[in-house]
Structures are given as structure tokens and as C-alpha cells.
Specification:
Strand content: under 5%
Radius of gyration: 16 Å
Mean pLDDT: 94
Shape: extended
Order of helices and strands: HHH
Largest sheet: none
Number of helices: 3
Structural class: mainly alpha
């Protein structure tokens, strides 16, 4: 997609990795864009808890 298309911008904002080498303003901008364009989490509370527990179990 062309980088000037809004959908391309949104996809970029969602995927950009926030790093320590960004300026404070860049970091804030991209963090805000990630929040603005984040997809809604449609999982139930039980599903979220189970996913969290599965993740923790996989660490050990």
C-alpha cells in the first residue's frame, strides 16, 4: 500500500517498535497512535486470564 494511504499509516503505527533511541516526542507520538488505533480485545475475562496463565506457565 502507498504510505500516504490512511490504512497504511494505521498499520505502521500499530507495528512500530518503541525503542530507547527515539526522542521523547517520537516515543510519545507513537505510543499515542498505538493507543488510538489499537484493535479492541474481544476476549472474555476468563479467556484473558487463561492466556495470561498459559504465558506464565510457558516461562517455566
Amino acid at each position: 500500500l502507498n504510505k500516504d494511504i490512511q490504512l497504511s499509516k494505521i498499520m505502521f503505527y500499530r507495528s512500530v517498535e518503541l525503542t530507547d533511541d527515539m526522542t521523547k516526542n517520537e516515543h510519545k507520538f507513537y505510543r499515542d497512535m498505538k493507543r488510538l488505533y489499537a484493535l479492541e480485545d474481544m476476549r472474555s475475562e476468563e479467556e484473558k486470564e487463561q492466556d495470561f496463565n498459559d504465558c506464565l506457565a510457558g516461562m517455566f
